[in-house]
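RECORD TYPE: protein structure
NAME: YHYH domain-containing protein
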Amino acid sequence: MKKIIMILIAVALLVGTSSTAFAHSGRTDKRGGHNCSAKSKQKGLCTGYHYHKKK
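PREDICTED:
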């Protein structure tokens, strides 16, 4: 019984923490977006202002 409870707690922790991860760690405004750097534009990663958080 203890083993089942521990497994359920572990699964709940993994599910709860995985949904809070974001693609971009810094330099975003209060809406979760930012302008691309020149380096990112050269690599073709983005073209301008874009968001990293769901609205």
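COMMENT: Residues 2-18 form the longest helix (17 residues).
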